[in-house]
Specification:
Helix content: 10-25%
Number of strands: 102
Largest sheet: 6 strands, mixed
Number of helices: 9
Radius of gyration: 62 Å
Length: 1537
């Protein structure tokens, strides 16, 4: 983005002129302001004077007591004058201070305004072109002859400047003196290295940095001195003396360096590099810089840096794939810089949905405007996931956590213009990838950007004031007064994609001071039909994305400038723009082509160097993705998670010894290319043949003294960390007097052990030693010199130090430490060892074993995973604890990735017992060293060690208890691959048994020989083996005779199931005996026998005969299921069975005790099931039931004996149904007492029902009667008294559970019930003794006239009732014609002599006493002689119905809330209420006796109803009303629904 802002360091003359102009202009304005202020001050004074005069008060009159003398007045005037002068001075000083303060405030306000403007434009100023400027200039050096010197500097500028080196004004050409000069340019640091300085190199050197905006130069002098006597040195300038130590003056040596690291998104990681600093000053730490992919890192909330404590640390607290790359630490030292680099890999976090892609990365905002921001990113690698179909872009205002999705549909390219932003607000952006499986996790959010018009910066100019502040002014301040702006220019398409086009133009000149906006119009090229685009958007920036363009159509665009004064003319139309080219390919054309040939070569034991040819069509590459795959696997894995820019890459984190293939993909804004061809398979092993440095061993280290006798010293050292590709087989020791520089060889013959005794030493002298290791490639570099050691005889009684501390089996919480015994034992033999432990960096050691161990190893547990520890060992003898060993190397309590343990097993083919280990890493020179109890086994006849690939196996030749112990194995030339296993006696015995089974194989059997009776009476003998091969052979032996497959015997086997079987068709008594099967399967054998004699044989024979008969039975109609019973919901017992093989003609019959039962519904055999219902089941239904089934094919019978246990089971099933349906207890009062009733689906006295009163069982008696009906169970309390109060319970048991219902008969409930009982008792007594007609009267009488009619009946009542006769409701009195008689209080008669037609009518009799009465009506019809006898018509008899019918039975109430109005039944003496009386039909009712004085055949009596209802002779009947209906008394718990 171009910018016209003038930096402070550019065009100094112009800046000075501008400053002078600004100064004079400001001075002129200040002078004008002063003059205006003076004039305004005068005018304001006059106004104040006038106002004072107008507001003046009358003159003040001095009181008498305040009058002064002349002297007092003079003194007062003098004092007043002096006071006035002092007051004027104070006022003038206050005015001066006020003006100074105001000027200072205005100055501070200007400064604040300048700072605010500069801070707001900071992001724009970062993009301002800059001329070169040296941040770190060259510094002079004074060096000795033949020593190297390094000149370096750091320069910045935009664009990056080019640096050239000059010596004395002449260019430095490295090719002119090969190897003498070396020029480097890395990370912005430029250096010139002179390898071996000579005196002629003394000169002034300069570095000239150049870019399009200017040139900068830095110079420094180099002075080369000769040693004393070698001549005079040549100097140009004296080296300045440094009074203050700068970080770059320190001597820094890097020690432990961070290695290749692996992280996961969302996690954290630290890169640490330890160092030695000389001098080590706490307040002056070394100057360290961190770089990622050659870009300098700055501290932020995502990057934390720390230098101090002899370490430089870089912490990434929230990892993202953006953090992947090559990290470099550069530390500025006295001699230049010390650097170290390593790669950091950051893998994808688990996806939000299975199969979803990884998150995009490197989200950045470009082309920032007030209306839109162009967001770009890099696509993620898709290895095994579905291809990416698009991306969603989200935005979030700075300071908010609310993310808003910017695009409605996924965008397919890795760029998107986000519009709709608010001018002046700051935003962050993030991106999510989409594929068919779901949406990825969001990327890391972008840096904060502010939506501002980029063109505004071009209108800014910066003026320097006093060398401190920058005054920013706008071009419109220098323009004239402009109203309508000019038209925009250079309208063109800056971005063309399939989904949108980005238009760009230059702002108008002049534009005016009014706020400016733009209007865009489009038209199809060549038509001239212009149409506005941004109708709803106010556009302020000279950029705008245009969407919704038709494919294949060319468009032209033009732009107007608009402000409050009006609109400009239209700009010149743009060139025709087309979204898609004629071939339908995106512009620019799609993804790149696939990379070329991929070649993989060895690099290290866990990495491979991969390189490839770039694609033929590059198309703005972002980089490459590399994928790997283990040979033999189908799953690819990503080797990098961020596009790598170069076409070569080192793939780390591979399994040593494994074989891989690799492929590459190119990446650009459109996505990923096709995969390249796979590389050739390559095994992960260290590279060899890179020169002596790589083939010889590294330096030994840790030289320590083990013993000294005054003339000789015994020293030991530790093995080199790297063997160089072959076994270390030689060590060479050099020595020197600590006061001299000359080294002398100690041994001309190579030492094979890491221990050497150096003789011919001088006692009291200090010596230094160094060691070199050698292998087949040669002798490696020497070790660092040891610390000075004094040759002084050891005479202490305690032992010397142990040595050669090493570690094995390092895991997360444990490890094993091993050491060697001290050379110097002291005054007595070593009896044990103490091991001390401390965390790295701590000097506080803790003793791990309180009692000394006699062996030279110790299992250490309880470690913190990831913590680093150091150890030391002290030997113990009878005289005390000896000197501590040298502190061990630091060891981290963490298992190696993929570490395995030793496996103890048995070879399935040979039966050998072995221990094996598969190493997680290995190299060509690695060896497996096996030990028992941490003593090397070596050549031992008891074991045999074999190694194949990464697996080593130790086989026991003759395992027994002597082989018990702890075995361990160490893999040499690795990072500590080791493991151990303790072989216990139990484990060995188990493996011995398995070994014997393998060496003496048997055919394992799942099931031994057994027999099975089949349905036709056949007998199957079978066994099942665990596994059979197709070559298996076997034979059956019965009673010592082999049986072959043939008639009567069928022998077969099934390899898949391992079953061998023999079927005997006719099993008879002759088949009794012993059965044996012998199996041969390869080398394995097996035999199984079955003894089938005695009772076992008889049982088998009986079963076979039964099955044979069953088979015959089933040839015709038969019962597939014999008779069984079920109980329905309504408590009907069903006898059911299932039939089979029936047809239409098949008959079915039911019998009980051989007497046929004919059910109402004939059985349907074709349905397959028949059932016989037994309702109201009780004891009378006991007996033997039989069902028969038959047709022409045969007959079958099923019996079912309902008695004993079967009867009890049925009763229990009924009780279960009844108990579940039982209602709560209901109380009902009767004339005899109080009754408690429980309604249920069905009740029979055979059920196990118990009544309890106050938890005491109630037995049936005259006082407590127990009974029931089919619908309920009841308990009657006769003549209740207070003793019968209390809690009553009924328990219904079904043999499994007991169903309980309760009622509380006490309190008010008992009082109400007792009153009701007394009332009903009285009502029953009245009903029993009331007057009534017992019998004798007909309902209708037909008689011929002149005959005599006698109506006679029997009446009863106690006391004797009164009898009254009525005719047509009029009382009949006794006359000659009509005579009424009542004899003996029992018989009443009405005799009509010589009846006439007038005697026809309705007669009635009323029988009544004090308890009540009864009406009986008779219809009399008289006809004349010769007339046809009229048809007898029954009247409607009316009877004064009594209050209660003794023989009726109440019906359970339907609702618990409404009491039943059913009359109360009166139980009989037999404890069971009488069944309700049925009304007989007229034909069955005998004719009543009739008395007639003149009996004629013409009289035809009609039978009467047994319960006539007499009609009252008056309109209001005089019959006695029935008693008040009884009320049910219910339990507090509602009855069942």
């Amino acid at each position: 983005m171009a910018s016209k802002v003038t930096p402070c360091y550019k065009k100094k003359r112009v800046s000075q002129v501008q400053t002078d102009y600004a100064y004079h202009h400001t001075k002129h304005e200040v002078q004008q302001q002063k003059e205006s202020r003076k004039s305004s001050s005068k005018s304001s004074t006059q106004v104040k004077a006038q106002a004072t005069a107008a507001m003046a008060e009358p003159a003040y009159t001095v009181p008498v007591f305040r009058e002064r003398s002349s002297e007092e007045t003079e003194e007062y005037q003098r004092v007043t004058t002096n006071f006035g002068k002092g007051l004027a001075v104070i006022q003038e000083e206050l005015h001066r201070m006020r003006m100074a303060t105001k000027a200072q405030v205005e100055s501070l306000e200007i400064q604040r305004e300048v700072r605010d403007r500069m801070s707001r434009r900071g992001d724009l100023l970062d993009e301002i072109p800059k001329m070169p400027d040296f941040l770190v200039a060259l510094r002079p050096h004074t060096v000795w002859e033949k020593t190297p010197v390094k000149l370096f500097c750091t320069v910045e500028g935009n664009p990056r400047p080019i640096v050239k080196w000059y010596k004395g004004g002449a260019p430095v050409d490295p090719l002119s003196a090969p190897g003498r000069y070396k020029i480097e340019s890395k990370y912005g640091v430029h250096s010139l290295i002179i390898s071996r300085c000579v005196v002629s190199d003394t000169a002034e050197y300069s570095a000239v940095a150049t870019n399009p905006h200017g040139t900068a130069t830095s110079k420094a002098a180099v002075t080369v001195k000769r040693a004393s006597g070698a001549g005079q040195s040549c100097q140009l300038n004296q080296v300045p003396h440094l009074t203050v130590i700068h970080p770059s003056k320190l001597e820094v040596s890097l020690l432990d360096r961070f290695s290749v690291s692996f992280g996961v998104e969302g996690g954290s990681i630290s890169l640490v590099c330890t160092m030695v600093v000389v001098p080590d000053l706490p307040n002056v730490p070394p100057l360290a810089q961190w770089y990622r992919d050659d870009k300098l890192l700055k501290p932020s909330n995502l990057v934390e840096m720390a230098v101090g404590g002899s370490a430089a640390r870089l912490t990434l607290p929230r990892l993202a794939k953006d953090d992947e790359g090559l990290y470099t630490l550069r530390i500025f030292t006295k001699d230049g810089t010390a650097e170290h680099s390593a790669y950091l890999f950051v893998s994808d976090a688990p996806p939000s949905a299975a199969g979803a892609p990884g998150a995009p990365m490197s989200v950045k905002a470009y082309d920032i405007n007030a209306d839109y921001v162009l967001v770009a990113w890099k696509p993620p690698n898709t290895v095994n996931e579905a291809p990416i179909t698009g991306y969603f872009v989200d935005r979030c205002e700075a300071g908010s956590d609310t993310w808003v999705q910017s695009n409605d549909s996924p965008v397919k390219v890795c760029k998107y213009p986000v519009h709709g932003l608010s001018t002046g607000r700051s935003y962050h952006f993030r991106v999510r990838a989409v594929n068919s499986a779901g949406i990825s996790r969001p990327s890391r959010k972008s840096d904060q950007v502010t939506a501002l018009d980029a063109a505004e910066s071009e209108r800014l100019q910066v003026i320097k004031i006093e060398g401190k502040y920058d005054i920013v002014i706008r071009d419109d301040d220098l323009e004239g007064y402009v109203t309508i702006p000019g038209e925009p220019t250079d309208v063109h398409a800056s971005e063309v994609f399939k989904s949108y086009v980005v238009l760009s133009w230059k702002p108008p000149t002049p534009r005016g001071r009014a706020p400016l906006s733009y209007v865009i119009e489009k038209c199809v090229a060549g038509t001239g039909a212009w149409q506005r685009i941004n109708t709803s958007v106010s556009l302020h920036s000279p950029r705008y994305p245009v969407f919704d363009l038709q494919d294949g159509t060319k468009y032209q665009f033009r732009v107007f400038s608009v402000n409050v004064h009006g609109s400009s003319e239209a700009s010149a139309p743009s060139e025709p723009v087309q979204k898609v080219d004629p071939d339908g390919v995106e512009l620019p054309v799609g993804v790149p082509s696939a990379p070329g040939q991929v070649v993989a070569t060895r690099n290290s034991k866990s990495s491979v160097f991969v390189q490839w040819d770039p694609p033929k069509q590059v198309k703005n590459l972002m980089g490459y993705y590399i994928d790997g795959r283990v040979v033999g696997s189908k799953e690819w894995f990503p080797c990098n998670h961020k596009p790598f820019k170069h076409n070569r890459f080192v793939v780390h984190g591979l399994i040593p010894g494994e074989t891989y293939v690799f492929r590459a993909q190119a990446v650009n804004v459109f996505g990923l290319s096709e995969e390249s061809q796979e590389s050739s398979p390559i095994a992960v092993e260290p590279a060899l043949g890179r020169g002596v440095d790589y083939a010889t061993p590294s330096a030994p280290f840790g030289i320590t003294m083990l013993s000294c006798d005054g003339a000789s010293m015994t020293v030991a050292w530790k093995s080199p960390k790297h063997c160089g590709g072959s076994k270390v087989n030689a060590y060479y020791v050099d020595k020197r007097n600590a006061d001299t520089l000359t080294w002398k060889e100690v041994n001309l013959v190579a030492v094979k052990e890491r221990l050497c005794t150096v003789d011919s030493l001088t006692e009291g002298t200090f010596y230094e030693f160094k060691v070199q290791a050698g292998n087949m490639a040669g002798v490696g570099v020497p070790s660092a010199p040891s610390a000075p050691m004094k040759c002084e005889a050891w005479t202490m009684d305690e032992p010397g130090p142990a040595y050669d501390l090493s570690f094995s089996e390092v895991r997360g919480h444990s490890l094993v430490i091993l050491w060697k015994a001290p050379v110097y034992t002291g005054a007595s033999a070593v009896s044990g060892y103490l091991v001390d432990q401390a965390k790295q960096g701590s000097s506080e050691f803790v003793t791990l074993n309180q009692e000394a161990v006699s062996h030279r190893y110790l299992q250490v547990s309880g470690l913190e995973e990831g913590q680093t520890y150091v150890f030391r060992v002290r030997a113990v003898n009878a005289n005390g604890v000896g000197k501590a060993s040298q502190v061990s190397e630091a060891v981290c309590a963490r298992a190696l990735p993929g570490a395995q343990e030793i496996v103890a097993s048995v070879d399935g083919d040979t039966g050998d017992i072995f221990l094996s280990l598969e190493a997680c890493e290995i190299c060509e020179t690695s060896k497996f060293v096996w030990s028992k109890n941490y003593k090397a086994i070596g050549d031992c006849p008891r074991v045999e060690v074999t190694t194949k690939g990464r697996t080593s196996k130790m086989t026991f030749t003759q395992p027994d208890n002597d082989d018990l112990g702890k075995y361990s194995v160490v893999v040499t030339d690795t990072d500590g691959v080791s493991a151990s296993h303790t072989l216990s006696e139990d484990a060995l015995n188990t493996m011995l048994e398995l070994s014997h089974a393998i060496r003496h194989p048997i055919v394992p059997l799942k099931h031994g020989l057994n027999y099975e009776i089949l349905e036709k009476g056949h007998v199957r003998f079978w066994l099942q083996a665990v596994k059979l091969s197709p070559a298996v052979s076997y034979r059956f032996i019965v009673n010592d005779k082999e049986v072959a497959s043939g008639e009567g015997h069928k022998i077969s086997h099934d390899v898949a199931t391992g079953i061998i079987q023999m079927t005997v068709d006719h099993f008879t008594r002759a088949n009794e005996g012993t059965y044996t099967v012998q199996i041969h399967d390869g080398k394995a054998k097996a035999q199984s026998s079955l003894v089938l004699v005695g009772d076992v044989f008889k049982a088998a024979l009986k079963e076979a005969e039964f099955q044979r008969k069953e088979h015959i039975r089933k040839q015709g109609p038969h019962f597939s299921e014999y008779l069984y019973f079920t109980v329905t919901e309504d408590c009907t017992v069903m006898l059911a069975c299932k039939v089979a093989n029936v047809k239409k003609e098949t008959t079915f019959h039911w019998f009980k005790e051989d007497e046929e039962i004919v059910p109402e519904t004939p059985p349907n055999v074709l349905s397959g099931a028949c059932a016989l219902p037994i309702p109201l089941f009780s004891r009378k239904d006991q007996g033997v039931f039989k069902a028969t089934l038959g047709d022409d094919r045969g007959k079958d019978t099923s019996l079912f004996d309902i008695s004993g246990q079967v009867f009890d089971d049925i009763i229990n099933a009924l009780a279960q149904n009844a108990g579940a349906s039982a209602s709560e207890l209901v109380m009902q009062c009767t004339p005899e007492g109080i009754r408690l009733q429980c309604y249920m689906n069905y009740y029979t006295e055979e059920m196990k029902t118990v009544w309890k009163h106050k938890e005491t069982k109630i037995a049936s008696s005259e006082k407590m009667r127990i009974g029931g009906t089919a619908e309920m169970a009841w308990m009657q309390i006769c003549d209740p008294s207070d003793k019968e109060k209390g809690h009553y319970t009924i328990e219904i048991s079904d043999g499994v559970q007991t169903h309980t219902r309760t009622f509380d008969l006490s309190g008010q409930a008992y009082t109400d019930a007792y009153e009701e009982y007394l009332r009903l008792k009285a009502a029953a007594f009245a009903e029993k003794n009331r007057g009534r007609v017992v019998g004798g009267l007909p309902d209708v009488v037909t008689i011929m006239e002149q005959k005599s009619l006698s109506l006679t009946c029997t009446v009863w009542g106690e006391p004797t009732p009164e009898v009254t006769w009525f005719k047509n409701e009029q009382e009949v009195t006794s006359t000659e014609h009509t005579k009424v008689t009542f004899d003996g209080g029992k018989f009443s008669s009405l005799v009509i002599n010589q009846v006439t037609p007038e005697d026809s009518g309705k007669y009635s009799i009323n029988v009544r006493n004090k308890y009540g009465g009864e009406f009986v009506e008779i219809t009399v019809s008289v006809y004349r002689h010769g007339e046809q006898i009229p048809e007898a018509k029954l009247g409607q008899p009316k009877t004064a119905t009594p209050a209660a019918t003794p023989t009726s039975t109440p019906v359970p109430p339907k609702s618990p809330a409404l009491p039943s109005k059913t009359p109360t039944p009166t139980p009989s003496k037999s404890q069971t209420p009488a069944p309700p009386a049925k009304t007989p039909t007229p034909a069955s009712t005998p004719a009543p006796s009739m008395r007639s004085q003149a009996s004629t055949p013409a009289s035809t009596p009609v039978p009467k109803s047994p319960t006539p209802t007499p009609k009252s002779p008056t309109p209001n009947p005089r019959g006695v009303k029935s008693p008040t209906p009884p009320r049910f008394m219910k339990s507090p718990t509602p009855p069942r629904k």
